[in-house]
Amino acid sequence: MSEFLTYLKIGVQHILDINGLDHLLFIISFCLLYSLKELREIVLLITAFTIGHSITLILAGFSIVTVNSKLIELLIPITILISCIKNFIGFAKGSQTKVSLSIHYFIILFFGLIHGLGFSNFIKSLLFEGENYIIPILGFNIGIELAQLVVVTIFYMLLFAICKIWDNLKWFKVIVNTTIILITLYLISKLEIFH
Amino acid sequence: MHPLKMSNSKLTIENDIAKVEMRIFLDDLTFHIQQKYRIKRADFSTLESYGALALQRYINDCFYLTQNDKNIHFKIEKIDFTENNIALIVYLRSVTNVNANDPIKAKNTMMFDIFKKQENLIRFKTTGNQLKIISHKIDKPIQELQ
Hints:
The complex is a heterodimer.
Chain A: H1 3-16, H2 21-31, H3 39-61, H4 69-93, H5 98-125, H6 134-165, H7 169-189
Helix pairs in contact in A: 1-6, 2-4, 2-6, 3-5, 3-6, 4-5, 4-7
Chain B: E1 6-14, E2 17-25, H1 26-36, H2 50-62, E3 63-67, E4 70-72, E5 74-81, E6 87-94, E7 105-108, E8 119-125, E9 131-136, E10 142-144
Parallel strand pairs in B: 1-8
Antiparallel strand pairs in B: 1-2, 2-6, 3-4, 3-7, 5-6, 7-10, 8-9
C-alpha cells in the first residue's frame, strides 16, 4: 500500500474508532444546532473546523508549534462542553441570527486549531526524523476529513429518520446534547492529568 | 487511551545487519508490559530496567525476520522517548546476519494480544531502493518484505 493511502486510512480510523470518542462527540455536538435545511451552514462549519485543524496539524507536524499534549487532552473535551453549552443556549433562543452564526464559525475554527494539535501529537510521534512529513500528514488530514463527512452524513440520516417518527426533534437533540456532556465529563475524569 | 492502535518501524539492512527503529505508543505498551509480565511499574529508562528487560522478551516473541527458514531475532540497542513522551523509540539490531538479496519475511505481532485493531507498519527500502510499507494486522501477522 502507498504511504499516502496508509496514512489516509489511519486518519479515517482516528475519527471513526469508538475508543476515540472525543472528536466524534465534538463533530456531533456542533451539528446539533442545525437541520438538514441549513446544509450551507453545516458545510461552512465543517470547513472552518477543517481549516483550523489543518493549520495546527501542519504547524505541529513540522515542529513550528509545540504544545503540552496533556494540556491538549484537557482542552479537547472542554471544547465539547462549550459546544454543548452553546447548543443549550441555541435551543432556548430558537433560530440562529447572522451574528451568532459568524461567531459560531470563528469558535469552530478556533476549536479546530485545538483538535489539530491533538491529532498531530499522536501522528507525529510515529513519524521518523528526517522523513518527508508532507505525505503522511496530508494523507492523515484527508482521512480525517472523509471520516468527518461520514459521521455528519450518518448523523443527519439518523435525524431525518427520527423526525419521521417523533415530531419534537428539539427534545431528541436536547437528550443527545445532555448525553454528550455526560460522556465528556466521564472522559475528563479519566484523563491522566487528574490521576 | 488514544484511538490510534498502531506502531511504526523503519527497517534498514547494512553490512548484513538489520537495524530497526520502532515507534510504539508508550501508554499502551507500558500497560501491556506491566500486565503481561506482572511488573508493578514498567520503566524503560535504562536497558537493565525491568520494563526494558520485559520489552526485550516481548520483542523476541513478537518481532523477528525469517530468512531461509531461520528466525532472525533482534536485540534492543537503545531506548528513547519522543519529545512529547507519547511514544517509545526502540532501536533494535539483528543478532544474526541477514542477506539483503534473499527473500525475507517479517513477523510483527506487537500488541496484537491486547488490541484486535492494532496495525503495525514496517517501512523498508527494497534492494531496488524503492520504499515499501508493510502493514501487519491480527489476520496478517507475517508478511513478505521482499
